[in-house]
Amino acid sequence: MQVTFGDAEYNGKRKQTRREMFLAEMDQVVPWKGLLALIEPHYPTSGQPGRQPYRLETMLRIHF
Fold first, then answer.
1. At what angle do helices 32-39 and 56-63 cross, to 10 degrees?
2. What is the pLDDT along the chain (64 residues), one digit of tens a residue?
3. How far apart are CA 50 and CA 30, in angstroms?
4. Could you list the residue range(s) of the whole structural domain that residue 31 is in?
5. How many domains are there within the chain?
6. What is the pTM of this model?
7. Residues 56/40, Cβ–Cβ less than 8 Å
């Protein structure tokens, strides 16, 4: 099926979800780099036997 000009224009635009708006606002409000710098020296590193830790940024975002 051929894509029309109207379809092509509409494909680029979609409504932003509440989740996307919330995450965009959190990125603006929370100083992620500063928090990562504070926590990083105390966070476990990978390379040791056993379960590998999640990335620090992922864990920080989960708990916020």
1. 120
2. 677 777 777 676 778 899 999 999 999 999 999 999 999 999 988 888 889 999 999 999 999 8
3. 32
4. 5-63
5. 1
6. 0.63
7. yes
